Amino acid sequence: MDTAVRKERMGHGRGTAPCQPYDPAYDPLKSATPGQGRDYAPTYWIDTAGEPPADDGPVAHDMDVDVAIIGSGFTGLTAAIFLAQEYGIKATVLEANRSSWGCSTRNGGQAQCASGRLKRSQWIQRYGKDVALKLHAECVAGMATFKELIADIDCDPQPGGHLFIAHRDRVMPALEKEAKLLREVFDYDARILDADTVKRDWVGDQEAAGAMHEPEGIGIHAGKLAFGYLEKARALGVRVHPASPVQGFETRDGVHYLRTPGGVVKARAVGIATGGYTSQGLHRELKNRLLPILSNSIVTRPLTSEELNACNFKTTQVLTDTRVLRHYYRLLPDNRLQIGSRSAVTGRDAPHKKYEDLLIGDLYRKFPALTGIEIDYSWWGWVDVSHDMMPRIHQPNASETVYYALGYGGNGVMYSAQAGRRLAQWIAGHGQTLDLPIFTSRLPFPNVREMIESQAFAPFRRIGQRALYRWYHLKDEVL
């Protein structure tokens, strides 16, 4: 193989250019597809990651492949990597827009030892202690998988753990109880810090009433990680086709026909890894089984030494607070502050400046010394939340070789690596040995208090979401 061809396979060069502009009002519950060849959101990660690596260009003709993966984000690319590394299967990845266009380049870059949105104590309540312990072991294994994958990727890792900051005094008893459970039941070294210790030795978040420190947590540069996964996958022989949205999905005689604008991709197995950008009509097994939720993020200009001292930043570990409508934040390697939280309910409302202003106000409350600081980046993105707050890596129909990995609820930076490994395991024919509920059950339909589950509730989800946001605000700030 000559040098030019080798460099192209390794991902050196330029990725496929966008053929449509970024759509700030995109909404997965309204749009038939995420688009075709749309440009990236204007995130800090994309602006500072360098030129996107080379890909294989849009699908240009009918193709016959062994495995097709829909979605080229963290999950889709890691699944393709593990299929190649562990099973010798060279997958073909189909991406609607540019590589890692969705969740993977719009998140906060926080890798935590978690999957879904439930705490360990809630796992015990729902599944019992034995299953909860196995779920925890899966998360610990997931963190090991993540560390293994990023070891040779230059993604600006900031290791050290996760500081879960109590935003009010009244939440400290529950936090102390959870930390004790983590230590005594899960053998996970969580420890409680009082408010003075947090503000003196960690960070001067003026809301901090204490904190729980977890030993596992890594901050990463999301864009550099996404591009690193792309290079790693293509070096293993994976083909990645951007600007190739799946506009039709049929299964006949055990073969799957994926219609893209450039041709039909015929596959013997399909993995779906579309995250918060999963279209309602992509596949019948996914309609109304995810609730996409918007999250906003901002990044400041670099802080001066005086501002760093005023905010007493002594850690670069990942930070979150205890609100239901949670904030995630940290000091980046170039001394910028990134912070994110909830946003609008619909894509149409997402560009409204009031959501950015709300987040800026939250930043000022935590760090008054930064009042008036310039905001260099502002963006939003969709998070895939399942209706029972837990992810699924599953084969929904035993008679069809279609599999999905979805529903991380905002904890996909780390868990997508393990989900990709498990998705590869399913696709390679070894998923039957996976026995946890997240592997053995479908994504559920909307439900009422986890008692009545029905697709009939789907049209009312956003009405309920607005009501819940009001209730959560009261719970977080008033009651």
Automatic annotation (TrEMBL):
Gene3D superfamilies: D-Amino Acid Oxidase, subunit A, domain 2, FAD/NAD(P)-binding domain
Coiled-coil blocks: none
Annotated segments matching region Disordered: 1-24
Name by which UniProt lists this protein: Glycine/D-amino acid oxidase
Domain FAD dependent oxidoreductase: 66-426
Keyword list, A-Z: Oxidoreductase
Gene Ontology terms, MF aspect: oxidoreductase activity
Basic and acidic residues biased stretches: 1-11
Keyword Protease found: no
Stored InterPro entries: FAD-dep_OxRdtase (IPR006076), FAD/NAD-bd_sf (IPR036188)
